[in-house]
């Protein structure tokens, strides 16, 4: 059993990982090992999310659901159109048709909120932005504890003033998308995760969850000693037996050809960290434009994965990826909590 205090009865959180890795099996396995797992609502239909929530509820109530907050910022249509032209070589390579550029979409935001309001999970976390105060108070009234993901002191200040129950502090070493929402072009936090914890502690008394680059038991206990109430790990679970990570992604994590991670906008139009591959190198000038670029590259990514070509797939991973183990979640959790 992983200990915990305050609002978390465990101090180890298995991160929400949209796009496949988060499964009901992973969330249940986390709960059974004394950790807290999150379902990832991002990219899913409401029906698929409802099915996953029901599946988890057969075994546990100790879980959370994570939502992408839609971004209403205008995007540069000219830059998007130019990027679509650039991607024609990829379309030929993988023999797919690029779709026309889509308009903004909100990832079924209100339908997902309605579902969570009707069947409140113990925890709801947000990334890519903050919910409105109306949405926040509705969820809290229904009994959910609400976490906001932040990447800077300024974002932590806003989330604290809004009245969320806890903050997930995401360091840029994290795998997957950056949760940044105030300034998408801002230079990411350049200090350590412990430095981020310290900076946010000076302006917020909320429970803090440390995330990003935590990959072994020493880093877990170090973050807790540095004042985090819990830690949230994603990459460490990408190769877990219960994760839904694609085969091409799992094997790339073990492939010495991919020797480091990089931040990129090439796959989705939003900064994210993944194993540096050909696609990232060849499209280093990709513009900002989420979710339009996510939709634009969707077929390309699927075709590359189907062809087993890891060089055309978004291989999200944090800087600690070489420590990720192929094992059951119970084994991974036991190892990570060895020093707490
Ligand atoms: C494959 C993948 C998908 C992710 N998807 C989400 C997501 O849907 N929502 C979210 O809030 N964070 C997501 N994240 C980020 C994690 O919540 C967390 O911040 C990150 O994994 C922590 O860093 P680490 O990967 O070094 O452990 C994702 C991370 C990965 C690796």
Key attributes of the depicted protein:
340 residues, alpha/beta, TIM Barrel, 2 domains, eight-stranded parallel barrel, three-stranded antiparallel β-sheet, 14 helices, 11 strands, globular, binds flavin mononucleotide, oxidoreductase, detoxification, nitronate monooxygenase activity, monooxygenase
Explain the overall architecture.
The protein has 340 residues and is of the alpha/beta class. The protein has 2 domains: 1-70 and 106-245 and 322-340, Aldolase class I (TIM Barrel), CATH 3.20.20.70; 74-104 and 259-314, no CATH class. It is built from 14 helices and 11 strands. The protein has helices at residues 24-32, 46-57, 77-86, 88-94, 109-118, 133-141, 153-162, 193-201, 217-225, 247-253, 278-282, 292-296, 298-306, 329-336; strands spanning 12-14, 36-40, 63-68, 123-127, 145-150, 166-170, 176-177, 208-211, 230-233, 261-264, 272-275. The chain has an 8-stranded parallel barrel, surrounded by 7 helices. Strand 4 (123-127), helix 6 (133-141) and strand 5 (145-150) form a beta-alpha-beta unit. Helix 1 packs parallel to helix 2. The termini are close together. The protein binds flavin mononucleotide. Flavin mononucleotide is lined by residues 15-19, 21, 40, 42, 66, 127, 149, 170, 173-176, 211-214, 232-236, 316, 318, 320.
